[in-house]
Amino acid sequence: MRLRRTLEMGLLRRMGAMGEGYVALGDSMSIDEYTGYRGGGAASLLYQNLPRWQEFEGKDLKTLFPHWKFLLLAADGATSAHVLEVQLPSLAASGVYPRLVTLTCGGNDLLTLYGASLGEGLSAAQEFAQRLERILARLRGLATPDALILVGNIYDPT
Question: For residue range 75-105, what is the model confidence (pLDDT) as tens digits?
Fold first, then answer.
């Protein structure tokens, strides 16, 4: 099954049905909403720098890889379950074949445990680890074979 999927993806890519690119998955650590201006989030700036950050001119992905597409699927409040159940299916349907993926998740999973017992926390941590493994396995099937997948899951909202 995996070989068939790999062959199909390769054929679609050669036919131009899919575009290589950068995909940002996860939670609010990757979105634009809290920066005060459109395109100001970390993922958006990595893809396309804004004039206000002149020291990074010419160093963004859009400049370095002009044929790449950008897909920002990260969402405010997203948990690892949201990434697995909503964002990854959206990526699969998008036609973007990522060579770079950033994934920020785990913080909202942690916040849902406020007031939980030690046992509940340990169980939730185990469930998160299992979901993260499933997310990464699914990503490997959706991305280019040489894709770089960067995971940021240490919660620090400061």
Answer: 999 999 999 999 999 999 999 999 999 999 9
Residues sharing a CB contact under 8 Å with residue 85, sequence separation 6 or more, in sequence order: none
Beta bridge partners of 100: 22, 148
Q: pLDDT (tens digit, 9 = 90+) per residue, 9-55? A: 554 444 334 589 999 999 988 888 888 888 888 898 899 988 888 88
Beta-sheet strand order (sheet of 69-72):
69-72, 19-26, 96-104, 148-152
DSSP codes joined into one string, 19-75: EEEEEEEESGGG-STTSSSTT-SHHHHHHS--TT-GGGTT-SHHHH-TT-EEEE---
pTM of the model: 0.82
- Written as six digits, the tokens of 150 are 């960067």
Question: Could you state, in order of their start, the residue ranges of all structural domains in the chain?
Answer: 19-152
Residue type, 45: L
- Cβ–Cβ under 8 Å, residues 78 and 108: yes
CA distance 143 to 101: 8
